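Field: COMPLEX_INPUT
Field: COMPONENT_COUNT = four
Field: RESIDUE_TOTAL = 1024
Field: MODE = joint
Values follow.
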Amino acid sequence: MTVVERETQDETRVPESRLQRWEALAEWPLAACAAAFLALFSVKVLGQPQGLNKHIIHGLLFTLYLPFVVDYVARLTLAEQRARWFFRHLLDLVVVVLPLMGPLLLLRLVALVGALQRAIGDAIRGRVVAYTAFSAVLLVYAASLAVLQVERPASGANITSFGDAVWWSVTTITTVGYGDLYPVTVLGRIVAALLMIGGISMVGAITATIASWIVQRVSAEDSAQQAATVAHIESLQAEVARLADLVAAQLDTRSR
Amino acid sequence: MTVVERETQDETRVPESRLQRWEALAEWPLAACAAAFLALFSVKVLGQPQGLNKHIIHGLLFTLYLPFVVDYVARLTLAEQRARWFFRHLLDLVVVVLPLMGPLLLLRLVALVGALQRAIGDAIRGRVVAYTAFSAVLLVYAASLAVLQVERPASGANITSFGDAVWWSVTTITTVGYGDLYPVTVLGRIVAALLMIGGISMVGAITATIASWIVQRVSAEDSAQQAATVAHIESLQAEVARLADLVAAQLDTRSR
Amino acid sequence: MTVVERETQDETRVPESRLQRWEALAEWPLAACAAAFLALFSVKVLGQPQGLNKHIIHGLLFTLYLPFVVDYVARLTLAEQRARWFFRHLLDLVVVVLPLMGPLLLLRLVALVGALQRAIGDAIRGRVVAYTAFSAVLLVYAASLAVLQVERPASGANITSFGDAVWWSVTTITTVGYGDLYPVTVLGRIVAALLMIGGISMVGAITATIASWIVQRVSAEDSAQQAATVAHIESLQAEVARLADLVAAQLDTRSR
Amino acid sequence: MTVVERETQDETRVPESRLQRWEALAEWPLAACAAAFLALFSVKVLGQPQGLNKHIIHGLLFTLYLPFVVDYVARLTLAEQRARWFFRHLLDLVVVVLPLMGPLLLLRLVALVGALQRAIGDAIRGRVVAYTAFSAVLLVYAASLAVLQVERPASGANITSFGDAVWWSVTTITTVGYGDLYPVTVLGRIVAALLMIGGISMVGAITATIASWIVQRVSAEDSAQQAATVAHIESLQAEVARLADLVAAQLDTRSR
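Field: COMPLEX_OUTPUT
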């Protein structure tokens, strides 16, 4: 159905629910593609294959990239208010268009993290931490490959080995930024910018988790100052109900 | 009326409401001026026009700057407690006085962001994120132009192309600060300082959004620990009301 | 009285209230001393007076420093549990002992900020922001003077002018840290460390303010999800009271 | 018992409670070992003993390291769902395996901090701050020793004295990262990465503490907007109870 949708870009409003169904449907397949893409790209960057192998890998990488274009178009088509959706998903557009520039295809992995993030709808703090850690590791690894791929050939580049790339990624995502290593190419700097945004979100998630933990601890400390909970209201409700029965009893006694 | 106000700097107390009316009135026109100013300044910095064009652009830039001076004076005049208002709006003064130093005029764009920030009085998290992103992009672009304008002619400057300026702005607003590029002039450093403050606020907004999201999620998880909501109180109120009717019924039955 | 206290370091428990009375008493005088000290130190560092003037200024600086030693000893003496107090105020000890190393005397200004912080016991967000900004400006200025004073004479130092010192302080307090300028002496690095701690607290305060603002906005948005407030409970209480009157009315009607 | 457990890696489910009992039992002994290890390692790094002393110290360090291996194996064995526990404690594995690489043994001290963190289950903000400060100081000291130990012999290293190492640690944990000093060896960079993570958590804890303080202050300010507390509910409950008595009284009067 979505294929038809995609071909006939008619302006007829499509119920939101269909977009959601599509997203639920496409989520994990896309995540799988992103993961496979990361694996292949690792081979490409670290193994630096030559001749035929190189072409095979490029072909596979392109094949793994197509689904994301399909997904983007499908979601844009299914969106109820296309204009609104378009502006709310500019990042998705960037990620779909930029990949043609090669290593940035890796940024598709942000989709994987995104999927995981969505998967923790009913998250407890523990999970937030877990997913934050996972996203950080993934981002560092993906960014290291991407930056190495674009910097290695550049003249005057100082990120020339995978070890250096990882070290640079860590200093960047933590916003420490020693400056002993830094990208010198435009693509490398775009990767860096996305990594920094990831870093800031990561720091935010960690801080937020600690904050919610402290807020709870502090309020739990002094029970008089503790916020009234549903449990309290319910106990009160029970008391009122008991009172109602008492009054009802009166009516009975008199009616006799 | 505000013009009269502005001319006669009399000490008579002006009701707060009039200041607010003025601000509501001036908000969007000023934002428009700031946007137009940014566009023109972009032409000046990136196009580096010569001869007549240069003078025309300077003239237009100055014309677009005047409204902000007018606005500042008007607000100061309309303020109920001028002294208090003056100290609470020192940044506005800086922004109105500094522009005479040229590129810093760009900082007026903070006004645009400010207007947007005020526009989200009833913001949901999504909007906070949207405006944060918008402010960040705007700040990076404006600061890049400003720093390029002041650094390019300076001797020993290392920010000499627009690409470099943008890269420097990104590393600065994220507080990564590699140090591969940095301003060497006083004006450039003032731009940098304002950019850093913007960056810190940006990080704060992101963290805060995640925090409020987590706090809500955590409390929603364990309904017994969930904070009592207005909804709960209302259901309880309904029960009490039902009880009141029951008692009222008794009075009727007896009165018969 | 406190003088006597200070001389006779007897182990008799002193009621907490007396410590608090002393602190309330000493707060503003100490703040005044710190301010005067900052002014004088500015003259010393920026004016670089020679000969007699130099000695006069040193004398005055020392005189302004004594009160802080007195204050520290007094508070330690008046503290109910001296050991506990001692470990909880290690920073105060550092600030009282280190000043003998000269420029670090400036760090006493942290006391001024501390006083202000305490003064906002009933703070609204606006005040938090105001005091954060004030503390930041004060810290940057004080640290700039201190670092300039200790770095200028050092060989291989790169912070040699007041402008550079301020620029370095700003990049440090915002944790950007380009690394174009950095202290090379031990004293300069201690100043830097204290400035970084100040910066982290500043960032924390800004983030926290935004967070509490968002949390309130979000909960205010959906009144059904809004946390139950005292106002709600009171309205409910009124209803229950009305019900009580109704029941009381029954008793009257029957007793007739 | 745990020894037996460790030897017979049988798949029989062990009640969670036994794991907890073990952790409670092992907590402080392990902390003591970590502290002793830090002291000895300080001697090794700062004293640089030669000949026999060197071998003695190495022996002692190894002896102090064994308990952590035992602890890890024991906990893995006692864990109810081993797989889940394994993935949730990957960091512990790293810390137990990496130490064989020498200086990283120091990272075991994270265990000490961890123990303290757990010890503040019923923490008030003050304690959070105290433990944050303690953790920071400990991390800086431990990381300084570790990085000095691995960098000193490296060619092209710029962290060659303890003073430099401490200064580097401070600029790193605060995420300032001037870049005047930075590790060049793989081990040094691993230490740095762990230090950065510590720094981010530290910043998070500080921000969170301030946030919870502000949230409380703000809500306390306007009692109408103040969140309903258990105290309020209880007062309401009392009123309802009083009403119930009133109704009960009616029943009595009639039954007469």
